[in-house]
Amino acid sequence: MTPLIPHPPAETPAAPSNFIREIVLKDLDTKKYNGRVQTRFPPEPNGYLHIGHAKSICLNFGLAAEFGGKTNLRFDDTNPEKEEQEYVDSIIENVRWLGFDWKEPDGTERVFYASDYFDQLYAWAVQLIQSGKAFVCDLTAEEMRRYRGTLTEPGKESPYRNRSVEENLDLFERMRAGEFPDGARTLRAKVDMASPNLNMRDPVMYRILNAEHHRTGNKWSIYPMYDYAHGQSDSIERITHSICTLEFEDHRPLYDWFIEQLGIFHPRQIEFDRLNLTYTLLSKRKLLQLVQDNLVRGWDDPRMPTLSGIRRRGYTPEAIRNFCGAIGVSKTNGIIELGLLEHFVREDLNRRAPRMMAVLRPLRVVIDNYPEGDGSVDELDAVNNPEDASAGTRKVPFSRVLYIEQDDFREVPPKGYYRLSPGKEVRLRWGYLITCTDVVKDEQGNVVEIHCTYDPATRGGNAPDGRKVKSTIHWVSAAHAVDAEVRLYEPLFTKENPNDVPEGQEFTANLNPASLEVLTGCKLEPSLAAVQPFERVQFERLGYFCADPDSAPGKPVFNRTVALRDSWAKIEKREKGK
Ligand code: ATP
Ligand code: MG
Predict the structure, then answer these.
(1) Which residues of 515-550 are buried (b: 16+ CB within 10 A; e: fewer)?
(2) Is residue 192 part of a domain?
(3) Among the three residues 474, 502, 524, which one is the final residue of a domain in this structure?
(4) Residues within 5 Å of ion ligand 2 by Cβ?
(5) 8 Å CB contact between 271 and 20
(6) 525/441 Cα distance (integer angstroms)
(7) pLDDT tier at 571, thresholds 50, 70, 90
(8) What is the pTM of this model?
């Protein structure tokens, strides 16, 4: 499903070397901000953070850290209708989980809220009215759109543009006091209706919205627009470099205009490319729709590109940070292969995930010449992680009845199939060589059990006579197995660009009906009985898996984070094609 990707360079820098870094270096050189670097990450608390936000987080925190600066977490909470405390909490948790912190040495936290600046923003708006740079406008939204003009056609000035300062002050105060219904009036900046930049055509600064805010309650009946609130919030916090995505490039003249009119501290806005990923949607609005319409199991569904979702899927913060470092930043929007993100989680988990054995689709194997139980357990030594000697070894119990994968047996083996089939010998991982002697079928002709013999002289996996077997398969002892549920995932969308739909259809038309496959009755080796939620392991030959919070004592549930990209999957596919 996932396209193959070119191998990225082995060494991926933690803080990407990029054009933004060059700008910062230059500002440091010219002492523009007295050698200070301060950034912010400004999420709107109207949804959960996604992998695109991770790019912005890594960039902002990474740059400041590199130059001994600070990063503020600032909630851009100027839109009370869509914002909630639940989102604030999840954002704080997610940024911490990614590994970033905003604590001062004295323990205070650099967490800020645009809503804390509402009084200051209001005072500045009054100042702009007084200097003739802002006016109260009575045009409806529809009229305003018509007056605004287009890219090829200049705008028309509002008939309310030349109200006196006194009238503007009076009306603005009454807007604030809640005298008018929603949308009845706006406060607009008086810039230039003939500007080729539509954002400069007397943009709205405040709108009337008699809505309760999750932090300021019912104090305000007017709320500032993003363009007015953002730069001024940056200025209040003395942000030096205000890094945002490319769609704000055309807003930069307005960002600068407000700050210049007010004569306040002037941060530098720098734009970079948004992250887009194949088979993935990175729009909070659309992700919210998936959650609200129950098309996924919640914001933290392991198929979601949210940080909560990919964490539950088993991704590590290190993998995400390495990915963000590797993709870097640029001035043009592109699209990154989902396979690249998977590459980084594989690389990280390969280093640290212990190897365990699990059988997802069990087939019973009886070793006929293995002694019936006498109470003692034949325990084999298994290496926990060949990549990490410090991970040590563990004991894996062997017994007369085992489970292997159904796929690891073929009654009639196709060409090139070297796993178990009648008369053939294979190695059981960490165990013995076994040879298949018989097949038991049900009435429909399905194989339900196979019989084998084992060679007691091959304990540990090697034959003293040096004879070779071509295949090693994993297994679990039936008497000791732990039953588990395992959830396998495919991308949530069937199209590289989930927004690519025929006219009149929604992106949901591209949802992948096979994105989740739930397997029950999977058999795990007993050391996995006490697994804790979010523990990550490699099931040998099957991929990396992460224990889900739905796990209960003795009843683990695992999510497959990512399959192992090896020849197994390819051979599998080739065989199925035959
Ligand atoms: P969405 O489109 O998902 O709603 P947003 O831009 O509205 O995203 P914000 O909460 O305003 O969400 O974003 C906070 C910060 O994260 C902003 O600086 C924004 O530019 C950045 N950001 C959002 N999405 C991406 C992305 N896909 N790639 C890089 N940065 C992003
Ligand atoms: Mg936004």
Answers:
(1) bbeeeeebbbbbbbbebeeebbbbbbbbbbbbbbee
(2) yes
(3) 474
(4) 44
(5) no
(6) 26
(7) very low
(8) 0.92
Q: Distance between CA atoms of 424 and 400, rounded to whole angstroms?
A: 19
Per the listing, tokens 């009076």 go with 170
- Residue 387: count other Cβ atoms within 10 Å of its Cβ: 13
Containing structural domain, residue 441? 358-474
For residue 9, the model assigns a pLDDT of 39
Whether residue 555 is contained in a domain is answered as: no
Which helix (H) or strand (E) segment holds residue 500: the answer is none
- Residues 255 and 110 reside in one and the same domain: yes
Give kind and range of the element (H or E) at residue 477: strand 476-477
291 alpha carbon – ligand 2 mean position (Å): 19
Residue bearing tokens 């060409």:
415
Last residue of a domain, one of 431, 447, 474: 474
**So which residues are the catalytic ones?**
44, 274, 284
State both tokens at 77. Answer: 């909470």
**Band of the pLDDT at 376, cuts 50, 70, 90?**
confident
What's the pLDDT score for residue 11? 43
- Whether 179 maps to a domain, the answer reads yes
Burial of 235 per CB tally in 10 Å (0-12, 13-18, 19+): buried
CATH code for the domain in which residue 467 is found: 2.40.240.10
Atom 10 (ligand 1) nearest CA: 43
What is the per-residue pLDDT across 93-126, written as a single tens digit (0 to 9) for each? 999 999 999 988 899 999 999 999 999 999 999 9
| Contacting residues for 507 by C-beta, under 8 A, at least 6 apart | 281, 286, 493, 498, 499, 501
pLDDT at 576: 57
The residue whose two tokens read 């440091």 is 28
**Quick check: is 190 in a domain?**
yes
CB distance 63 to 14 below 8 Å: no
Report residue 353 as tokens.
């995930």
| Residue 46 CA, closest ligand 1 atom number | 10
Q: Is residue 88 domain-shared with residue 215, that is, in the same domain?
A: yes
Kindly state whether residues 32 and 171 are assigned to the same domain: yes
**What is the number of other CB atoms lying within 10 angstroms of the CB of residue 403?**
24
Q: Are both 251 and 373 inside the same structural domain?
A: no
CATH number at residue 195: 3.40.50.620
Structural domain total, the chain? 2
Does 82 share its domain with 218? yes
Q: What is the full DSSP assignment across 116-135?
A: GGHHHHHHHHHHHHHTTSEE
Q: Residues with Cβ within 6 A of ligand 1?
A: 42-44, 52-53, 55-56, 76, 244-245, 274-275, 282-284
